[in-house]
Fold these 2 entries.
Entry 1:
Amino acid sequence: MTAEIIGAYATALCLFIGAGFALVGVIGLLKFNDPMTRLHAPTKVGTVGIGMLLLASIVHSVLLGETSIHESLIMAFLFVTAPISANFIAKVSIHRKACETPPSPPLDDTWSTLIAPETDQATDGGTQR
Amino acid sequence: MARAFHWLIPHPLLTLILAVVWTLLQNEVSAGMVVFGIILGIVIPWATSIWWPDTPKGFRLGKMISYSVLVIWDILVANVQVAWIVLTVPNAKLKPAWIVVPLELRKPEAITVLAGTITLTPGTVSADLSDQGHSLLVHVLHTDDPDAARDEIKTRYERRLKEIFS
């Protein structure tokens, strides 16, 4: 009986923390006003937010006696794919010059995103802002 | 024997991961599903072998596991910090910055792991790599001292990754 109560509270606590972090991610997405800073809030806070929700799911399934741990796969795939989507968004904002232009690298010529045909860069700089 | 093993399982770690993922997807451990997972773990690397140019040499699994634990702890701590920044720092006082991290790592796998780590750790996003791959462009959400942030990435993550992919 006590184990059930502790499990129920643990599930509720995990859900609460996860939902809280997801809320902070949404607030950040709405509050910041620059594409690059805006990128920080959802991609980051999302990892722990979703992680806690999945942990709640695991704890609840253990509590019901039908242990299921394939939620950990969602976590693993999320950790592998989240940096890639964040990197793509960052590259797009650098390419479209939607953010402050980054300082040039000390050793090499330029950043790889900025290597683009001149025609491409001209249209991007002129029409997209 | 060793050659036959290498011919059958060119990427042992990939085979293991595929078998574990398959078993996890079934959400129950039964002998049949484990065997099927191992069959998949042998067939998939063989079918996709032309896209695996060469196996990275000198990968230290033990240090990678301790590194993963460190990164997960950092993600938890930094999530709270970023949540605090999002909720308390007004837009006008926010100090985002670009920082350039000069790379000592040369292996593509190592740089990929470093960039992924930087992105997963809240407050920093790795945005771009220079054309020859000697430096990494990182965007920091809020920092008073960009140089300190750069040094922390170098000492905390890059030094450990150099040991893992040595």
Note: Confidence is low (pLDDT under 50) at residues 122-129 of chain A.
Entry 2:
Amino acid sequence: MSSESYHEPIELLSEQTKNQHRANVSLREELEAVDWYQQRAEACTDPELKAVLIHNKNEEIEHAMMTLEWLRRNDPKFGENIATYIGSSGPIVGVEQGATGGGEAPSGGGSVSLGIGSLKGMK
Amino acid sequence: MDLLKRQLAPITTEAWKQIDDEARRVLTLHLAGRKLIDFSGPHGWQLGAVNTGRLKQIEPTTPDTVAHAIRDVRPLVELRSTLRLKTLELDYAARGADDLDLDPVIAAAERIGRAEDAAIFRGFSEGGIQGIIEASPHPPIEVKAWRDWPRAVSRAKEALRLSGVNGPYALAAGPTAYAELTSESEDGYPLRKRLQESIDEGSLVWAPALEEGAVLLSTRGGDYELTVGQDLSVGYHSHGKDDVELFITESFTFRVLENKAAVLLRRVSS
């Protein structure tokens, strides 16, 4: 249960924080599952089982990305950083400098934006 | 180098951060459409148009000719709002100042935010954009006095329901409408509270570009879509001895997928 990993008294937490916690925990679990399936598939000696494990791993990646998208829509900082880093090209550490105007900006179509994106649900 | 050309600007990293933060703050406050409708993107500068899946100008064939049709696409519109800042002022950021005079950034961000929302709500014919209000088949509901707002919202919700448009519903309110809804009260009971009978608490969105009054729309998804190529960004244009010219830009288009999903509530003088 995700509620077992709260670090603060639950009555002090808003509904938004509790939902975000659920998403954070789910994302972590999905990524752990990706890791497990990858290792099992690589070590597996039966070709058919190996194919099933790889299929399952890919499903977990889909789940992780759906959860990440929820976080992007509901936490502006996730949105801001996803807009900066996801889909960029060139050295990844260079993207941060590009985002603040210093250093090399990402090449190609990777113009750095303000990371506003969707604001749906924000008042 | 990319289209924003930020590396060419005589602006320190610290000043860029304050400029970006201020633009982001103002835009997040002012943009109303993005708080209510579906969003696709950002897809980058390379996206030039959105496929509608339809044909236009279908020319019939005759025995000696070849028929042709043109694919209907929505071209992306590029907006650009320019601003000018004093280099001396910007350099204060590198000396530790965290309160730069960024009024031109605020003004430019407000302009481009209003332009995006104006296209979403009222349309932008040059860009092939039909707005939410002009697309709606529902007759506008007139609001003649501030105390009429709750009843008008209730009627608008009924119109949406009768058209088969289910909720949740949200109210985008222009400056006058928002002020009346949040400051007026009837018998000591705030109008905003009365609205809760029609829309969920917190579903009232300030929409400064909506001068007509307010729009009640469904936020269930699938009715309206904003497609963004390059999302709102600050770029560099040029600089002189004492100042630097920047711009806030974006590329986008907007599509109405279900025109019945919104009703205009027009504030008129009684």
Note: The longest helix of chain A spans residues 15-43.
